[in-house]
Amino acid sequence: MKRGLFVLILFVVSVTKVFSQIEYNRFSVEGLGGITMAFTDASNNNISYMFGGAFHYNTSPFSFFSLDIQSGQLKGGLEGNKRQFANSYSSYSATYNLGLGDLLNISANTLHRKTNDLYFGAGVTLIKNNVKEVVPFEYSTSDGTFTEGVNFKGTEFVFPLQVGLNVKYRTKTEKTPFAVNLHYQFNLSFSDSLDGYEGSPGNKKNDLYSTIWLGVKYFFGPTSIYYRTPR
Q1: pTM value?
Q2: Whole-number pLDDT of residue 149
Q3: CA distances (Å), 69 to each of 22, 60, 66, 82, 178, in order?
Q4: Are the C-beta atoms of residues 220 and 27 closer than 8 Å to each other?
């Protein structure tokens, strides 16, 4: 009996030495705000604003699924330019974000935690365009004179690629009630309609845009234990 108890204690001690434990919440919500940058046929002065919110399902302390809603503006062109527009959009995204902490077995000291909480991800976005303030642009070719540029409303899918960093606040008991999130997202469009212009004759480049935001995350809900081999 004593020998069995000794073996059990030895096993528990050895497992404790082999694995460290990180407790984390399964859910988090985020409020966010930042800027947009449009890369379209209407160049110059292409920085505007966005804000929104997100809900996350955390698959580990470092990785998460995200559903977010954004509202903002894409714009380009200057007064007197050949092309000028403003697109008051709203978007709905679903993404998966993989944290480096799930890929790298990095020491959990304070300095290296920042590396653990770097993440990158991809997904799909439904964007609702409301393109207005479009200045008609006239151009001539061998086939005649044409005018492009139209105000319109429409919906399309874009594909976000993103990278970010969660700067987590930890209590003395290693709880993480909230985090500050710095996030960059590059959005691939498969159309040329984000700005209301088709572009120059023979243009085959699609419109693109990116967003940079600062957010605050609040963690809540049931907790899980994440096991990892310490270094």
Answers
A1: 0.83
A2: 72
A3: 30, 23, 10, 33, 20
A4: yes
CA nearest neighbour of 74 among 110, 117, 40, 23: 40
Nearest-angstrom CA–CA distance, 140 and 171: 66
- Of 76, 15, 70, 71, give the one whose Cα is nearest residue 41: 76
Tokens (6 digits) for 186? 């590059």
Tokens at 192, concatenated: 């040329």
Residues 131 and 152: beta-carbon distance below 8 Å: yes
Report which listed range, 86-95, 133-142, 220-229, is most confident. 86-95
For 149-207, how does the pLDDT look when each residue is reduced to its tens digit (9 = 90+)?
Answer: 778 899 999 999 999 999 998 888 778 899 999 999 999 998 888 888 776 655 667 88
Structural domains of the chain sorted by starting position, each given as residue range(s) with its CATH number in brackets = 2-228 (2.40.160.20)
- Answer whether 85's CB lies under 8 Å from 135's CB: yes
pLDDT at site 124: 98
Token duo for residue 78:
């200057």
Q: Which two tokens stand for residue 86?
A: 């403003």
Number of H helices, E strands in the chain: 2, 10
Between residues 155 and 106, the one the model is more confident about: 155
Write the DSSP assignment of 210-223 as a string of letters: EEEEEEEEEEEEEE
